[in-house]
Design brief:
Helix 4 links the parallel strand 3 and strand 4. It is globular, with a radius of gyration of 14 Å. It is of the alpha/beta class. Strands 2-1-3-4-5 form a five-stranded parallel sheet, with helices on both faces. 42% of the residues lie in helices and 17% in strands. It has a single domain (2-148), classed as Dehydroquinase, class II (Rossmann fold). The protein binds 1,3,4-trihydroxy-5-OXO-cyclohexanecarboxylic acid.
C-alpha cells in the first residue's frame, strides 16, 4: 500500500507557529512519526508539503499516475477556501482523509467550512499530530478490506 501525506501552507512552521493550537513538535518531528507509523502498517510512505495551492493540486494529480492508494491531507487554510483542491481530490478518486491538528470546530467561524470534506472518506480534527496516524490506520484498514472483496 502506498500512502501520501500532504501538508498545506504553514505546516512547515510546526513547532514555531502558535504552539497553543498546533503543539511543539516540528515538521521534521512529524515526518519521523509518520515514517515510524508507516513502517508499523507495512505501507510505503510519501510526504509532501507546499505553501502553494497550485503545487498541491499538481501533487494530488501526480498521486493518480503514481498509483497512490490513500491520501492523508492537512490542507491548512486552503481547507476553508479551495474549490481547486476539492476538484483535484474528486478528479483522482483516491480514498482521502482530511486531518486538522487543532479542533477547528471550536475555533473561528471562518474555520467551520471545509471545501475538501465532500471529497474525503473521513475528517479527523483536534487530536494533535496523532490525527495523521489515525488517518493512516483508517486508510490501511480500508485498503485491506477492499482487497478481501
Ligand atoms: C489546520 C487548521 C486550519 O484552520 C489552519 O488554517 C491551519 C491548520 C489544523 O491543522 O488545525 O493551517 O488545518
Amino acid at each position: 500500500m502506498k500512502l501520501l501525506v500532504i501538508n498545506g501552507p504553514n505546516l512547515n512552521m510546526l513547532g514555531i507557529r502558535e504552539p497553543k493550537h498546533y503543539g511543539k513538535e516540528s515538521y521534521e518531528d512529524l515526518l519521523e512519526k509518520l515514517a515510524a507509523h508507516a513502517e508499523k502498517l507495512g505501507a510505503e510512505l510519501l510526504c509532501y508539503q507546499s505553501n502553494h495551492e497550485g503545487a498541491l493540486v499538481d501533487r494530488i494529480q501526480e498521486a493518480y499516475f503514481e498509483g497512490v492508494d490513500g491520501i492523508v491531507i492537512n490542507p491548512g487554510a486552503y481547507t476553508h477556501t479551495s474549490i481547486a483542491l476539492l476538484d483535484a481530490l474528486s478528479s483522482v478518486s483516491i480514498p482521502t482523509v482530511e486531518v486538522h491538528i487543532s479542533d477547528v470546530s471550536r475555533r473561528e467561524d471562518f474555520r467551520q467550512i471545509s471545501y475538501l470534506r465532500a471529497a474525503c472518506v473521513a475528517t479527523i480534527a483536534g487530536h494533535g499530530t496523532d490525527g495523521y496516524l489515525e488517518a493512516m490506520t483508517l486508510l490501511s484498514e480500508r485498503f485491506k478490506g477492499a482487497k478481501q472483496l
